Amino acid sequence: MIVQWSQWRAYGKLLDRFYPERQVTVTEADPRYITPAVKAMLRRKNRLMRAGRTDEASAMVIRVRKAITRHSTKWLRGIDVKKNAKDAWAKIREITRGTSGENRQPVSGITAQILNEHYASISTDVNYQPTQLKLTAASCDSFISEAHVFRLLDTLKSTATGLDGIPAWFLRLGAPIFAAPLARLSNQTIVEGTVPQQWKMACITPIPKVSRPTKPSEFRPISVTPSTVEVS
Fold this sequence. Notes:
Blueprint: H1 5-18, H2 36-50, H3 54-76, H4 85-97, H5 112-122, H6 146-154, H7 168-173, H8 175-192, E1 203-208, E2 219-224, H9 227-231
Helix pairs in contact: 2-3, 6-8
């Protein structure tokens, strides 16, 4: 069977129409397991979620997980954990955190105070007015029950500890004791229409957006709030 050049061109147009080429950029800031294929699937998963197609998005999540597992397994295959545990843990940290600890270098000229002032300036509203106490009573439907707080504490996910220093596992363990005071505190905020100042504070970890950051705006702030904020 001989295929003419015109037929090949027709096939090429069909491919371009139904399978168009897409450009996927992978930077140094991306973790090692983020390949172009994985990044393309993550973008498609996000589009499906925004379109409300949750079933297809869940299926895409499974594909992404399998692709990351295959890539990480292949990369760690040649490591002997028994003979060289230090290198094994270094590889694992590089996978989970996205960068190797050996390549991290302090950024000259950028201190914690400079970063604090930068994040404070971009997150502060100069026209902000403190909330006035409510003069009307809240409806009973707005109150949070002790049982509801207990269920939230009992199923609290493990997250990083915030400025209060209270880990999530401690809140889960003490859920029967903490449920009542947290419920009263939450209901008090509803009645007064104000939020405790401690709940507005977060521990910020700056993550570089580029390989060699030179200014505060080139750091991505990762905010960790107290675990009690998630419950309340």
